[in-house]
Automatic annotation (TrEMBL):
Keywords: ATP-binding, Kinase, Nucleotide-binding, Transferase. This is Protein kinase domain-containing protein. The keyword ATP-binding applies. PROSITE patterns: PROTEIN_KINASE_ATP, PROTEIN_KINASE_DOM. The lineage of its organism: Eukaryota, Metazoa, Ecdysozoa, Nematoda, Chromadorea. It holds the Pfam family Pkinase. GO terms for molecular function: ATP binding; eukaryotic translation initiation factor 2alpha kinase activity. Residues 6-118 form the Protein kinase domain. It comes from the Eukaryota.
Amino acid sequence: RFSIEFEVNRILGAGGFGIVFEGINVIDNCRYAVKRVSVKSSHIDKALREVRTMALLDHPGIVRYNNTWIEKPPAGWQYEFDMELFKKRIYLHSNAGECDFDASIKIFIQICKKSLAE
């Protein structure tokens, strides 16, 4: 769903719990922050409790919650390994003045979409 419904603009942040992307929803053409989190099947209930709590929050200092869905990663996707390799590669290239991380992640995502479709 993520790769179908969103055009990724850039990475807003990354951490131990996942990556937050800025993306445009291709259906409503609105800009969203989308957090992708890898959750073990044994921890889904805990993650859903957190989601339900986030849905209740309404404060100007907190990013508004809109939606949640559960999906399996595409076949062959090795998130942790790919991101570590990609970060190291982008770090080396950005120090050489070739490309910044946000621009490169967009290119990387497009390449992955293409290679998975083939």
